[in-house]
Amino acid sequence: MNRTALAVAVAALAALPFVAGDYYINLASQILIAALFALSLNLLVGYGGLTSLGHAAYMGVSAYISGWLFLKLGLGHLLAAPLALAGTTLMAALFGLVALRASGISFLMITLALGQVLWGLAFRWVSVTNGDNGLSGLTRPMPFGIDLSGATAFYFFTLIVSAASTACIAALAYSAFGAVLRGTRDQPRRMLALGHNVWLVRYLTFVSAGFWAAVSGLLYVYYHKFIHPQALGLTNSAEVLLMVIAGGSGTLVGPVAGAAIVVLLKNYVSAYVERWTMLLGFVFLAIVLFMPDGLVPGLRRLWVKFFGARA
Amino acid sequence: MGEVLWGARVSLALEIRGLSKSFGGLPATSDVSLAVETGERRLIIGPNGAGKTTLFNLITGDLRADAGSIRLFGEEAVRLRTDQRVHRGLARTFQIITLFPHDTLAHNVVLSLLGLAPSRWNALRPLAARRDLYQRAREVLATVGLAAIAERPLAQVSYGEKRRVEIAMALAQRPKLLLLDEPLAGLSKEERQTLQGLLAAIPRDITVVMIEHDMDTALSYAERITLLHYGKIIVEGSRAEVVAHPRTREIYLGA
């Protein structure tokens, strides 16, 4: 994405609360949170070639730790947030040791299994997680004394956090480490022969993907002020994977577009159509059939086809 | 044979003793012992399936040996990972081209340069801003005569040029020991001559071990030859000795 497009996008996002009502502002917050979540998974799936079906674990655990520290220990957000991030990152560091013993479909199955273990734990370990009732009665933080209970204030908070996180993820994608990571995706054996520690590159990516998912988990729990085992579940993991693949894995704009599609369909279409998940299925089917590398790369190709070289 | 060299105290780039590897009970390498002196040009020959590439994969660590020892530059390396052996000074090219087709030639070489550079862990600074790396990559490409097309995607260059990129990537790391797996395979006569010139220009401080079927080219390059058959060393010696050996004629030259 060139600088002009980036500037237009940032300006449009910043202007949104001045032209839209609360419903749409909240919808935009949800899209931003989902986009960050999808971008974190994209590090693994898109750049690392490691398809994970358990990424909701990191979003969910971060949200649970934050909620639990607030409710049970009475910690303020200033302490709970870094502890949630640290705890989740530590968990990613442990899970990575297990999951990265494999790649391909085995890696996917291990991440799925680890995710389901946590989901089961959230359901059954009632004394900690409150089981099926979830943790409720949570609050939003007040950074520098600013009240985030309103839609607009929370939207700007989410925008700042997710933009800063996206900048870090983009920096990684364009860095030497990012180039090496893509190399391990395309030719792992060749990268080894060039002196790259393929396992360590993947491991560090796994841990950072967990960290950024934890950041999105904090935004998620602040937005909903509630956390339920479902956030850790397979459906959530599959949904975020669909966002990445449908939008275009291995690109920065793709997962964001994928997140927007899923959140909009979920919130908007479900008001009119009861079987909205079926519609979601059809949308993905169409994308996979006609643009197998995702919506953003597919549209880019169409653009080149009809308007010549990239404008 | 290793014993003699031990006694002679020559400096060895590679020393293999009793190396064995089987796939499902089928021995691909059995009890191979081999010593390559620093600066030597060694040719490995043998019929298809003789275990030549398996031997390379054992030396690089792509495959784990069942038994035996591999010493690189005097250091036991049999337990080291591939990337660790590369950091000790080992480089290789592959028989089947496994480069990065969507990236430019320069970027392919940059990935090779990064393999030994601590800055490969930098996740913040844009790689495109590393002009020093791309400059160095263009210099390396110039040594194989590809500077003019350094910015072209690899997928758009000829097979012979890809072969040269392979060698450029290996040489970019300034290795001490270079393993070339059939560098001339599939090349036209002109391309072969170009590549021959490149191989001849490899500095003497780099030890070269080469697998090659094109005997005309390979024989003129090699100083010593090892003949493998069914994973065993059948004949080893100077160029003249091996070519004249009856077993070589029987197994390989087919005369």
Explained architecture:
The complex is a heterodimer of chains A (311) and B (255). With 311 residues, chain A is mainly alpha-helical. Chain A contains 14 helices and 2 strands; from the N terminus they run ααααααβααααβαααα. Chain A has helices spanning 3-19, 22-47, 56-72, 77-99, 104-124, 126-129, 151-174, 176-186, 188-193, 198-224, 234-247, 253-267, 276-290, 295-307; strands at residues 135-136, 226-227. The radius of gyration of chain A is 19 Å and the shape is globular. Chain B is an alpha/beta fold and 255 residues long. In chain B, α7 links the parallel β7 and β8. In chain B, α4 crosses α5 (131-143) and α4 runs parallel beside α6. The two termini of chain B are 28 Å apart.
Primary descriptors:
heterodimer; A: 311 residues; mainly alpha; ABC transporter involved in vitamin B12 uptake, BtuC; 14 helices; 2 strands; B: 255 residues; alpha/beta; Rossmann fold; 2 domains; 4-stranded antiparallel sheet; 10 helices; globular
Number of strands of chain A: 2
Number of DSSP helices of chain A? 14
Element order, helices and strands of chain A? HHHHHHEHHHHEHHHH
Q: Tell me the CATH superfamily of the largest domain in chain B.
A: P-loop containing nucleotide triphosphate hydrolases
The N- to C-terminal Cα distance of chain A equals 11 Å
Look up the CATH topology of the largest domain in chain B. Answer: Rossmann fold
- Level-2 CATH architecture of the largest domain in chain B: 3-Layer(aba) Sandwich
Measure the end-to-end span of chain B.
28 Å
How big is the Rg of chain B? 19 Å
Described by the principal axes of the CA atoms, the overall outline of chain A is globular
